[in-house]
Amino acid sequence: MCTKRSEPSELWVDALERFVHGLCMPTKTISIEVDVYKKLVAAKRGPDDSFSKVIRRTTFEACAPTGAELLGRLDVLFAGLPDDGRTLDDALAGLPGDPPVTESSWDEIADESGGERR
After folding, report:
1. CB neighbours (10 Å) of residue 44?
2. Helix/strand/coil (H, E, C) string of 82-116?
3. Helices (H), 25-97
4. Is the overall model pTM greater than 0.90, yes or no?
5. Which residues does 50 contact at the CB level (< 8 Å), separation at least 6?
6. pLDDT tens figures, 80-97
């Protein structure tokens, strides 16, 4: 449905907007399910409101899970594993420890200056 505008300058501005939008605004075609499409249509504020504007007004939930959610997911993940009675400390005990500390020239300088480094 077309609406007729009385001012020629308004027609020019409308044509210019369509021209600039067509040249400068890249677009992407996406596939959405029908129920989502209906939600977008319902969220439009009028015939001049675009789906892009509707989506820009939308707020999305944060994706970062809380610590409790992570623990819950771990419980589900490990629920099917056999319990061998080992603890995390037992598992870590079999790993190599920290590498040995090597002597450096900075240690000698600290010893010569009475414990303070220069």
Report:
1. 13
2. CCCCCCHHHHHHCCCCCCCCCCCHHHHHHHHCCCC
3. 34-43, 51-57, 67-78, 88-93
4. no
5. 44
6. 777 888 777 777 777 777
